[in-house]
Amino acid sequence: MSKIWTNSGDSHFLEPDDLWQKRLPKRLADLTPRAEKEPDGEWETVHVDGQSFRRKLPSSAAVKFMEESHKPQGVRDARARLGDLDKEGVWGEVIFPSLGMWASTFRTPELLKACMRASNEWALEEIVAVSDRYVVTAQISTLDVDDAVEELTWAAEQGFKAVFLPTTPHPSADDWHRDSWEPLWATAEEAGIVLAFHIGTDPVDMTTGGAGQVYRGPGGAVMNYTETTFSGQRAAMKMVASGALDRHPNLRVLISEGGATWVPFLGDRMIEGYRQHYMAVRPKLARDPKEILFTQIYASFQHDETAVAAFDHMGYKNVMFGSDYPHMEGTFGHTQDTLKGLFDGVSDETRLRITQGAFYELFPHVPPVPADAN
Q1: Mean pLDDT across 159-169
Q2: Would you say 266 and 237 are in contact if contact means Cβ atoms under 8 Å apart?
Q3: What is d(CA 115, CA 256) in angstroms, rounded to the nearest whole number?
Q4: CA-to-CA distance for 188 and 169, rounded, in angstroms?
């Protein structure tokens, strides 16, 4: 079989570690995350925005594995990245940040606002300018709604087409289903900005430096990995049940890296809850929850065989492949083997919709995959 070309609804870029320190005035730069290794070499103390916590460093074997998983030069070099993508058969891709994962640890609105602008300006210069195949997600504050709206408006004016949102907002802010976020949804809809939620982005625990629930003991590694997927499902549930998507029918949401088969299940469950508890439901929706999920929520996956079945047999058409470049959970180094396994015996219609069609519905500005590639 010839190469299968795909777009990707999920990938990552590593910004320079000192990006914020170099671009912010000193009084703010001194508050950005920095780590100090302790003499024993096993622990480090992390300082961020006037807070500190200790965390155990990964073992040498884990560090080596992580370094190898980030070996592709394209993870830090947007020009070299194109060579990696061409080799893997990936054309356009959604690119999420790395430094932005620290956003939930900030307490000072001015600091977070400045960091988000610095990251966005850097991304425009170093990634967006390199290729129109890249859909870089803008970053905004989730600490202050007005700051979020201001930055999203600016980002749209600069040509950003998607915004990265954590599955749970800042710990001191309202959750996504609250009406306080209504100005952000209205601004995103008007600007045609896709809300790109990435799984595993719950607020960082300032006592451990970790994010999300942590299991220990038998099965811990598998349970911790599995747990990250649920936050994306909760974000989608909140956007639907709260009426946010019903009020903004042209708003589109991408849940990245969390699989796709959960969407039909969640739709069935929400319909049942809406019907069986109708008297208690607030707000009332103009469309049923499953219809909203199926039309406005897009979901990316990397290895899940059931994601193809969700398209073919469950009626969910917004299934999108994502390579998760260059993370160890992703397909870098074996993307073609993965695609050929997923689409063996599958119709061209299904394959093209999952690898390209759904992506282009969200990001029609990305140039088409070359005709001879198909």
Answers
A1: 96
A2: yes
A3: 23
A4: 16
